[in-house]
Specification:
GO molecular function: ATP hydrolysis activity
InterPro entries: P-loop_NTPase (IPR027417), T2SS/T4SS_dom (IPR001482), T4SS_GSP_E_ATPase (IPR050921)
Strand content: 25-35%
Pfam family, one: T2SSE
Structural class: alpha/beta
Helix content: 25-40%
Protein name: Putative conjugal transfer protein
Family: Belongs to the GSP E family.
Distance between the termini: 17 Å
Largest sheet: 4 strands, parallel
């Protein structure tokens, strides 16, 4: 990560339980906390995501989005924190839009509002799988695409790369991913040189 994120940038990691350990010199870690037996002292993940924006982050990373905090993550991604990320559980990259819609509903976000927020902020979805021996690996990479229909924006994750696909014809999303990488990576290299 150090090679891709300039050392001067602040990364704020927000998690239910501390697991992320990016190899970067400027990381702030926030962990949620449950309340005591009377319910006092709770610090919810959703509140931490909101508070992280007051810490002047360059990037916000939410360790695991399981509920209404998706609304705050999408707000963070749409307020100039380019290169931020979050983890979400879904059966495949293609099913991420449906999972986001379900979580957005928990946070009171309408379908059209969620679609607009996602379309403006999430560009790439990386699917990770666990092998039989317990090790995790990148299984697929997809790009978020939108089409407009009578109901509004329709979100899809188009495959761009699949583990073990070999030298077959590149999937439709590959051109979009290549374009994103061409436009984003030179900017990273330029800021590293400064």
């Amino acid at each position: 990560m150090l090679g891709l994120v300039p050392a001067r940038e602040r990364i704020v990691c927000v998690e239910d339980s501390p697991e992320l350990a990016p190899a970067h010199p400027h990381v702030v870690r926030l962990a949620a906390r449950g309340g005591n037996s009377e319910g006092a002292g709770e610090v919810a993940l959703r509140e931490l995501v909101r508070q992280s924006l007051r810490m002047r982050p360059d990037r916000v990373v939410v360790g695991e989005v399981r509920g209404a905090e998706v609304v705050d993550l999408l707000a963070a991604l749409n307020t100039g924190h380019d290169g931020s990320a979050g983890t979400i559980h879904a059966n495949s990259a293609a099913e991420v839009p449906a999972r986001l819609a379900a979580l957005g509903a928990l946070g009171g976000l309408s379908g059209p509002a969620l679609a607009a927020q996602v379309a403006a902020s999430i560009h790439v979805v990386i699917g990770v799988r666990r092998d039989l021996d317990g090790r995790r690996h990148v299984a697929e990479i997809g790009v978020v695409t939108t089409t407009r229909d009578a109901a509004g924006l329709d979100l899809r994750v188009e495959p761009a790369w699949t583990h073990g696909a070999g030298d077959t014809e590149p999937p439709a999303g590959r051109k979009v991913l290549d374009s994103l990488l061409r436009t984003r990576l030179p900017a990273v290299a330029e800021t590293e040189a400064r």
